[in-house]
Amino acid sequence: MTSSVEVGRGAVYDRGYRPYEGKRGRRGAATLALYKASVRRALGLRRSWRQKVAPFVLLGVVTIPAIVNVGIAYVTRNDVFTNGRVRVEIITYREYVGVSSALLLFVALVAPDVICPDRRQHVLPLLFARPMNGVDYVAAKLAAIASILFAFSLLPQIVLFVGNMFVSNSALNYLTGHVAVLWKVPIAVFLLAIFYAVVGVAISSLSDRRIVAGASIIGLLLVTSITAAAIVGEEPQFNGGSAGALINVLALPIYLRDLVFLGHVDPEGPLNGVANGGLLAVVAYVAVLLVGVGILLRRYRWVER
Amino acid sequence: MAPGHLLRIDHVTKQYPGTTALDDLAIELPRVRIGLVGANGAGKTTTFRLLLGLAHPTRGRIEVCGIDVARDPIGVRARLGYMPEHDCLPLDQTASDVVSTFGELSGLPARAARQRASDILDLVGIDEARFRPIGGFSTGMRQRTKLAQAIVSDPELVLLDEPTAGLDPLGREDMLTLVARLGSFGISVVMATHLLDDVQRVCDHVVMIDGGKLVVSGATDALLERTGTVTVDVGPRRDELVTALRTVELPAAVAEGYVEVTIDGDAQIDLLRDVIADLGLPLYRLTSRLTSLDEVFLERAEGVR
User: Fold this and answer.
1) Cα separation of B117 and B111, whole Å?
2) A158-179 tens-digit pLDDT
3) Distance (Å, rounded) from C-alpha A146 to C-alpha B303?
4) Which of A138, A180, B33, B74 has CB 3.0 to 4.6 Å from B189, enough for a Cys bridge?
5) Nearest-angstrom CA–CA distance, B224 and B289
6) Which domain covers residue B70, as residue numbers?
7) Residue B280 and residue B193 share a domain
8) What strands, in cross-sheet order, belong to the sheet with B157-161?
9) The pLDDT value given to residue A79
10) How far apart are CA B13 and CA B24, in angstroms?
11) pLDDT digits over A190-203, tens only?
């Protein structure tokens, strides 16, 4: 609706209400919009600086080992150890996947923040009045957390790889000698990101209070890891591990990481010597994912009852 | 605006365990501003959930804007805007962010959503405050923001659930003015309320439900029929007029300083005029009193129960 009133030689325009006649998306567009909004929220974008501190400090923390590793490699680049030029590595690419508890802290902090307020502040009815359903909601939230975790896990690895490449004698030789890393790291990181995202978002969906959800995620980590450690005992590389290690839910993606990098379970890890340990780890990993997704779909099923 | 009915509710029953929320509701509604009236628990919110495809009817069929809700709930929601009664906005985000995000969630491209959010917030009277977190907004500003998110995508139909709830008289006036303007934007309205004055002011059509049953559905003007009571102002000599009218067998009484006369047909109006003239009384006012929606509701709801 546009009207104009002539005032001398100029005109005053009342824009009023203008109907929208452009392109409209449907489910895909709505899901993508919710994904983008969730990523922005998780990273504190378009929010106060206080909301940005935690995610970016954690990103810094997970990147420190890579920087330190590259720094040491640079300082010792001309030293000769044993039979050849052996690089000093304080952390390997395999160990770097999921080694930092900063990622778990990040999940405990961010997953509740993108899930709980929707329920606590009654935003869900507004969201589901849009062209989307419960499955779309769950997919958008999981994808948001998983993609940030993937990026936060992969970025330090890229720093480590590029840094190592440039401090080596021949960057090209380093690259050709470590081609496997280029596919193993993304796969392992992907498995880790999906798993932590599903567990974090599923637990967060059970409460509308962020503090309760965050504490529950940390609690799950502590209780299951302590229980598993008690069952496995010390020095599994010598005494043999135990299938009880699978109780440590948040270590499951680490066992899969070992399968990706080594092709078998870590001989020094808690599944050492367990018959079909690798297979059991895969089954447990998939089972936890299915339970998590099942919880989420059930929690957001009400929208089309 | 597209031709045809806005809503077709075809003998819809909605039962929950132990209760019937809607009982064989059958109505067809035109593309105008519609008031959905009923006491608390009458079935208004259930009706909205059914229209949005967020609940399925136990029996019957619903069409919104020509689309069968059961077949294509996403398609229906792409054409609707929804303003819930309760608080439903993310309190730590700005109005600008919230409205543009909900524009994107409704299928608008990001740039169009931001542009329209700005225009619509102007329209509802949220100016500089749009860049402040909603948590600091007054009830009136929150209601306006809720209305803005409902219409940002230029829907065919907007569902407003108690839009004046909690507003002071000035805020209520502003909100009703905005609702009244929606029709001129090409947006049809269904406004659920228990405030019949609000409906009488802004709605072209009224649907009254009570206990899940249809009480009455019709054009507001047609429901506000003449009662057969005439109010006469003849100044202080009103008792004299009442006595004279009774002698010619016209029932009359003094009420609130005026003479109220029950008449039946134009002949009795002429008789009333003649009596006043014979007595030599001044005639300051002679009006035929309209019934109110409250009276319509009370009278017809009694018949349905």
Assistant:
1) 10
2) 999 999 888 887 888 889 988 9
3) 59
4) B33
5) 10
6) 7-223
7) no
8) B80-83, B157-161, B188-193, B33-37, B205-210, B213-219
9) 67
10) 5
11) 999 999 999 999 99
What is the number of CB-based contacts under 8 A between chain A and chain B? 115
Residues in chain A whose Cβ is within 8 Å of chain B: 1, 15-20, 22-27, 29-30, 33-34, 36-37, 46-47, 117-118, 121-123, 125-133, 303-305
For the domain that residue B234 is a member of, what is the CATH number? Answer: 3.30.70.980
Question: Average pLDDT in the B262-285 region?
Answer: 87
- Tokens of residue B264, six digits: 């039946």
Q: How far apart are CA A176 and CA A178, in angstroms?
A: 5
Query: Nearest Cβ partner of A122 from B74, B88, B112?
Result: B88
What's the whole-number mean pLDDT along residues B290-305? 70
**Minimum distance, in Å, between the CA of residue A26 and any CA atom of chain B:** 6
Count of C-beta atoms within a 10 Å radius of residue A23: 10
Q: Does A99 score more than 90 pLDDT? A: no
Tally of domains in chain B: 2
Is residue B300 included in any domain, yes or no?
Answer: no
pTM above threshold 0.90 = no
Q: Do B107 and A122 touch (CB under 8 A)?
A: no
Give the domain CATH number at B153.
3.40.50.300
The residue of chain A nearest to residue B48, with distances taken between CA atoms, is: A129
End residue of a domain, out of B223, B246, B274: B223
Does residue B302 fall inside a structural domain? no
What is this model's ipTM?
Answer: 0.85
